[in-house]
From TrEMBL:
The chain crosses the membrane at residues 7-34, 54-76, 83-101, 107-129, 141-162, 168-187, 231-250, 299-316, 328-346, 352-371, 392-410, 416-437. Residues 9-439 form the Major facilitator superfamily (MFS) profile domain. InterPro entries: MFS, MFS_dom, MFS_trans_sf, MFS_Transporters. It comes from the Archaea. The keyword Cell membrane applies. The keyword Isomerase does not apply. Keywords: Cell membrane, Membrane, Transmembrane, Transmembrane helix, Transport. Its main location: membrane. Pfam families: MFS_1 (PF07690). Gene3D superfamilies: MFS general substrate transporter like domains. This is MFS transporter. It is found in: Cell membrane. It is a multi-pass membrane protein.
């Protein structure tokens, strides 16, 4: 990588890690909110706290995380990526400060909504920056994915560790500090955002001034509608179906995973005192039972997400070697099988479940570089931000419904129905990959 590549990749790795640190710490808090609160006060009515209603609260933030990606994609083509990434980091810090002050689930919903709006601009901004500014694009996507997975895995792990010692509201406030530091770094970063985009010979003005590296996106509602129609008139429509299925599977399997695990053999809470030698317990006056407990399901969840680093890196490298359409078909096919066997493997014992967790963690994130690279293959550089805006509208906007679907199924049906539904999402994406390959 050249100097400009390194500067861009360094910034997007930092920001991507921050975004997913907050995104995947939320399910750790979900298990607390289910016991901390009894009702959700909506002024005109009150709702009981269940997996369905908490799933709806979480879906508010996750949906805005996706829905805001589309306007974010439009804006990034006009004002550039660095400014939006800085604003994203500041907004996320503010949202977790508010979360730490939340007296009830209504304010929790407001804080999650602010987080969703702030975080929504990152993916169109960061991925447009990678696709237009980095010469070694595949490697850039791989490192970008690795950083995201470090945030995805270490963020929940950090949250779980802090919750051993502090109340959840203080933990939420402490988590705001890294985003503030990252925003200060982003505000000072300098690089060429369009260094890797070839000049457009059809643009006479570009030729006259030596060759602009990319067009400047859409300038009006009419252009937005026209460019959107152009995107969806071609194969991008099928790519959009893939990313929607990816989001539904991703959010559906992760939102309540700690809660699903806590009732399984081997996931019983462990009192912190029991982990200390008897002599040290006596010295500190700590009981072997009672008090704060270590919850193994939180660490399984974090470990599964950390393993995704390997999946992200492998997926990013494979996009330079394997046709992306076949990569989508194969990786989503594997996710469908993993959903079908999850509960039988869990019933077989802790050892088999740990192995399955490693494989699931890898394949959850192998798919991401494939669909990110597919978007770059099927869209023009000048509206790349718009294209990634639609992509993450599908992944995180439509995909946010996966949390609501999971919560509703777990309230009114069974985990078996949930995993069968998830397998269906993955199967549709795999079939769509094959259709893209044949076209």
């Amino acid at each position: 990588m050249n100097r400009n590549d390194r500067a861009i990749v360094g910034l997007v790795m930092l920001a991507h890690g921050m975004v997913h640190t907050y995104e995947l710490s939320i399910p750790i808090f979900v298990t607390i909110w289910l016991t901390e609160f009894d009702t959700i006060d909506l002024l005109v009515t009150q709702l009981p706290v269940t997996t369905a209603t908490v799933g709806a609260v979480v879906t508010v933030g996750y949906a805005l995380f996706g829905l805001g990606a589309l306007p974010g994609g439009v804006v990034v083509d006009r004002v550039g990526s660095r400014r939006l990434i800085t604003a994203c980091l500041l907004g996320m810090a503010g949202s977790f400060l508010l979360l730490g002050l939340s007296p009830n689930l209504a304010v929790v919903a407001l804080a999650l909504a602010l987080w969703g709006i702030s975080a929504s601009v990152y993916h169109p901004a960061g991925l447009a920056l990678l696709s237009k500014g980095v010469e070694e694009r595949g490697t850039g996507f791989a490192y970008h994915g690795i950083a995201g997975n470090l945030g995805i895995g270490l963020g929940p792990l950090l949250t779980a560790v802090l919750l051993l010692f502090f109340d959840w509201t203080l933990v939420a406030g402490l988590l705001a500090l890294p985003a503030l530091a990252a925003a200060a770094y982003a505000a000072r970063a300098r690089f060429d955002e369009s260094a890797a985009v070839a000049p457009d010979p059809a643009d006479s003005e570009s030729a006259a001034d030596g060759g602009s590296k990319a067009s400047s996106g859409v300038d009006s509602l009419g252009e937005f509608v026209a460019e959107s129609r152009r995107l969806f008139a071609g194969s991008f429509l099928l790519v959009f179906l893939v990313v929607m299925c990816s989001g539904l599977y991703y959010r559906g399997v992760l939102t309540f995973l700690p809660g699903l695990l806590e009732g399984l053999p081997g996931f019983e809470p462990v009192p912190l005192g029991a982990l200390l030698p008897a002599g040290l317990r006596d010295l500190l006056g700590v009981e072997a039972t009672g008090g704060r407990t270590l919850k193994p399901e939180n660490y399984f969840y974090s470990g599964l997400l950390v393993v995704g680093v390997l999946g992200q890196y492998a997926g990013g490298k494979l996009t330079d070697r394997v046709p992306v359409e076949y990569g989508i078909a194969g990786s989503f096919g594997a996710l469908a099988v993993l959903a079908l066997v999850f509960l039988p493997v869990a019933d077989a014992g802790l050892g088999p479940l740990l192995v399955l967790g490693v494989v699931l963690g890898a394949f959850l994130f192998v798919v991401q570089p494939f669909y990110q690279a597919t978007v770059a293959e099927y869209t023009p550089a000048g509206t790349r931000g718009l294209s990634y805006g639609f992509t993450y509208l599908g992944v995180f906007g439509v995909g946010a419904l996966g949390g609501l679907v999971a919560g509703t199924i777990l309230t009114y049906a069974t985990p078996a129905v949930l995993f069968l539904t998830l397998a269906g999402f993955a199967a549709v994406a795999a079939a769509t990959g094959l259709v893209l390959a044949r076209r």
